[in-house]
Amino acid sequence: MKSRISDAICVIAAILVAVPLYWMVLSALKPEGEIRSDSPRPWTLEPTLDAFRRVLDVEGFGRYFLNSAMVALLVVGGSIVLSFLSAVALTRFAFKGRTVLLVMLLVAQMVPVEALTIPLFFLVQSVGEVAPAFGLNQLAPLVLVNLAFSLPFAIWMLRGFVAAVPRELDEAATLDGASRFQYVWRVLFPLVAPGLVATSVLSFIHSWNDFLFAKTLIYSSTDNRTLPQALLVFYQPDEQDWGAIMAGSTLMTIPVLIFFVLVQRHLVSGLAGAVKG
Amino acid sequence: MKRAALLALVGALAIGCAPPQASHDQPQGAGEKTGELQVWLFAEPNDEPKEKVVAEAKKEFEAAHDGVTVKVEYLPVDGRANRFNGAFNDSNSSPDVAEFGNTDLAGYVASNGFADLTDELAKWPEAKDLVPSVLDTAKVDGKVYGIPWFTGTRALFYRTDVFDELDLEPPTTLPEVAEVARAIRKAKPTMYGIATGGKSLYSALPYVWAYGGDIAEQKDGKWTATLTAPEAKEGLERYAELISDDICPPSACAQMTGSDAVAAFAAGKAGMVIGGDFNLPAIDAGAVKGKYKVVPLPGTETGSIAPPFAGGNLIGVFRASKKYGLAVEFAKLLAGKKYQQKMYDAMGTLPTFGDVQSKLVASDKSLEPFVASVKAGTKFVPATPAWTKIDAQGILPTAIQQIATGEQSVDEATKAAAAEMNKAFGG
Amino acid sequence: MTVVGERRPAGPVTSKATERVGDGRAAVRYLLPAGVLLLAVLAYPLYQLVQISLYDYNQPQASGAAPLRFLGLDNYGELLGDPQFWSVLLATVVFAAVCVAGSLLVGTALAVVASRARPIPRAMLFLAALGAWATPAMAGSYVWLFLFDADLGLVNEVLSGLGFTGMEGHSWMYQRYSAFAVVALEIIWCSFPFVMVTMYAGIKGIPAEVIDAAQLDGASWRRIATQIILPMLRPLIVIATIQSIIWDFKVFTQIYVMTNGGGVAGRNLVLNVYAYQKAFAGEEYGMGAAIGVVMTALLLMITVLYLRAQQKAGWSA
Questions:
Q1: What is the Cα–Cα distance from B57 to B75, expressed in whole angstroms?
Q2: Helices A2-29 & C119-134 angle (0-180, nearest 10)
Q3: Domain span at residue C127?
Q4: Cβ proximity of B224 and B426 under 8 Å
């Protein structure tokens, strides 16, 4: 009986939450005349891909998309390895200064990264003098920066997952005489996989979303831009091309959404696992 | 004890080392002779014609220089500071050539941003035809830091069809501008009486000047803000009056830039606008082609003209450019006589070469109101490095917005703005 | 996954003398890659940020055209003496508090509801929430801006259709409070899913017997929720709150995009955007850095105070 009320609330909430998304996709599909109409209708009888075409016609949109995807995937890869190793160290090894490190992980998340753009700009520039591929206007420093800024949260979250693996397994493994390294990679890693999936989603979003570092560190190269900057092209003074902005936003959201839906099950069960730890 | 030692260490670290700085020296020699030449130009409303001219120059340049590609990027004028500062801080992969406004010259030079082109111009035959007063706007302490590309003057555009329909006469004084604008909005509530905004600085300055005020004055080499003088306050107040619900509603206009305003007029959304000669082709490309006329922006009395701002853009070479030789060559090509003429044809921008200019102006009737405005005497923003900062911080637009939205009184807003300006002047 | 949980003895691992040997060294090896990266890309720039905040560091200084001048704490002094800083600070705190409270309330409430719902409605809610969560900040900002657009937006159309004709052509992003409200809605929209999923996972982690037993005892649903579920979720709520505080206090993209860099005459500025504007638009990098340092200190303080309050309230995990 209670459940029915809950069902209804669920459905209503789902609809409310979905409205902006629906509106985004709908506006992307509306013909231009309807977008500019003062009385928007919640449907369209003449869906068109014009807006998407305008977006894809922009010089380099595909390239920006690939750049964004490449950076995000590298960040995810790096974050899986680094956060796993760190989480294992922080939960499975006893050593001095562990608590200090944990507190620092939390502090690291509090630093307003926007303020760090100035020193980072100079850092990346001087690195570029030695290793040009890691200099300004290159994608590599963007990977490192996004990786570094998503790492504290990833480690923080993954700790719970690692802690959830029963310690009896550790003991069993040492009795077998497996080396610690083998144990960590062969046994622990697969067991923590759902957690890794969950954290990697968040790292992916973090990197995919990044607008500021991309804008600051890739300030002049038009080839190495990422997606958020491409979206700005349509937000012109006094003549916003809403259709194209919505189409661009849709294109930008889809990869993340796919990623999310694929790992949704792991996300929820993963978090549940983390909680028990 | 341990903690004190740690604190001392941190303190020593903080004071001991200095924060990072870039370094740029005047380029020596031509540098790299092949590769990609990066060029930054400004994006303007409807600037396809500009892009076409530049594409031609790019083609010509690439044909003449083997192994060189020219990559042009159009930056929005609003928010340019971030991009230029990025380039100034970068001594490794900086762009090579850029268009920039003469108001930013002093600031950019103080930041070591652009290369000293004095010697290059001395060797360039075309340079001797540059109008001396215009060339002066490219100089700091007698050295030239950019080739003047075009100059621009603003005047009052109005819709002839709307004025005829409502039986209105073009305004002859500044108070009349507001009256006429009010009448237009009253009759046509979907239109702005005059499109102008909190961020349209070069529309606001003529008001200050027309009422006899100025934003700053220089005494013994030191600049001080004069915004709090009664004349300046009256000018700003009269201007802010335009940003009101019965002329140009603040909800739409408070954030409007000069380009936005021109775009709105070109789209047929406004009865009037303060626009530049360089906006003519853009407006002709819009919905109001053939339905507008231009008169000088009037002053406070009938027959007087509000002093326009003496705008103009330069083509400069980044000091950190690794292709100094090529960059100078491209700057000379793009800002040379041939392409200035093409830019005039495409965009209506006024050339900076005396011979080219006199030939064109005599034959072009659409330039008359602009020439008349210039003859009445132009004015300029404070020629000091601090101006770039004052401009980038949006000090004046903030004051205008505060007055227009009624958030602060004219006295409060100008007082705060003057204090900010004086801080930037190094007071 | 708890903060205070670290006070527990570290489990059986430490009790074995054989395993303790080499733990420290192994830990160093495991932590090295992440440590090096974080030191280089986070700690070192942070150190430089503090340095820059102690100097008169403007554009000419950055590009090496003017000598550096050491100011000591002058930037901080000037900042604290600037009335705009205090009004921005106040706006930031209130705005962040609204966003944090909103996401937590919505997220937790929906998690409780979802745990009571049947699979299909629940799946619908989760799908929609995941969609909101997945929407990049930039895209989300634009979508909400469009929904609330004065002339073309759905919201005004619906409101005027419902009889609020005054809302036709109403500009939401112009007035200070309504602009903040729209941005806050967007932020709650895209950040409640994290809370919801976490809480849902937590609720699922509560043994069913506990709730069944309570129901058998005749406890009302409200009682079960407030006296059994919420206390058991408490560690999670603490975590979610801390994360939300950290995220919402530092909000940047939404304010920057939706209010066009801080609203008319900067009345929609929050600290992070204020620092950015000071540093990059105003070319006062030293001052921008000082704001950044103050922000970090404030966040640290808020978090510590919050954790203290939680501990005092008797929570220990």
A1: 18
A2: 40
A3: 74-312
A4: no
Q: What is the pLDDT of residues A7-43, one digit of tens each?
A: 999 999 999 999 999 999 999 999 988 887 777 888 8
Domain B35-152+311-375 fold: D-Maltodextrin-Binding Protein; domain 2 (3.40.190)
Global pTM reads 0.87
- What's the pLDDT tens digit per position in A193-252? 888 887 888 899 889 988 888 888 988 887 888 888 877 767 765 567 888 889 999 999
Rg (CA), chain C: 24
Nearest 5°: phi and psi at A165?
-75, 125
Please check whether residue B245 is in contact with residue B125, taking contact to mean a CB–CB distance below 8 angstroms. no
Could you tell me if A23 and A90 lie in one domain? no
How, if at all, do strands B68-76 and B35-43 pair? Answer: parallel
Contact C39, A106 (CB under 8 A): no
Pairing of strands B272-276, B154-159: antiparallel
Q: Around Cβ B303, how many Cβ atoms within 10 Å? A: 8
Report how far residue B145's alpha carbon sits from residue B255's, in angstroms, rounded to the nearest whole number. Answer: 32
Q: How far is B402 from chain C (nearest CA, A)?
A: 6
- Give the closest residue to C114 by CA, choosing from C99, C127, C103: C127
The alpha carbon of residue C51 is apart from the nearest alpha carbon of chain B, in Å, by 5
Question: In DSSP terms, which residues pair with B315 in a beta bridge?
Answer: B99, B147
Determine whether the interchain pair B113/C63 forms a contact, defined as Cβ–Cβ distance below 8 Å: yes
Contact between B88 and C63 using a beta-carbon 8 Å cutoff = yes
Q: What is the mean pLDDT of chain C?
A: 85
User: Is B130 or A182 the better-scoring residue by pLDDT?
Assistant: B130
Asked whether the beta carbons of C303 and A106 are under 8 A apart, the reply is yes
Asked if the Cβ–Cβ distance from A220 to B260 is below 8 Å, we say no
Cα separation, B273 vs B261, whole angstroms? 7
Measured between CA atoms, how close is C88 to chain B, in angstroms? 15
CA–CA distance, A109 with A13 (Å, rounded to integer): 31
Task: Give the amino acid at B170.
Answer: P
The interface pTM score, or ipTM, of the predicted complex is 0.88
- The tally of domains found in chain C comes to 1
Residue B349: CB atoms within 10 A of its CB come to 25
Question: CA of C136: which chain A residue's CA is closest?
Answer: A209
- Domain span including residue A157: 53-276
Task: Count the alpha carbons within 13 Å of A52 in the hemisphere toward its beta carbon.
Answer: 12
Q: Please tell me the predicted confidence (pLDDT) of residue C3.
A: 36
Closest C-alpha to B193, from B258, B155, B160, B242: B242
CATH number of residue C141's parent domain: 1.10.3720.10
Residue A14: what residue type? A
The secondary structure of B4-35 as a DSSP string is: HHHHHHHHHHHHHSPPP--------S----SE
d(CA A5, CA B297): 67
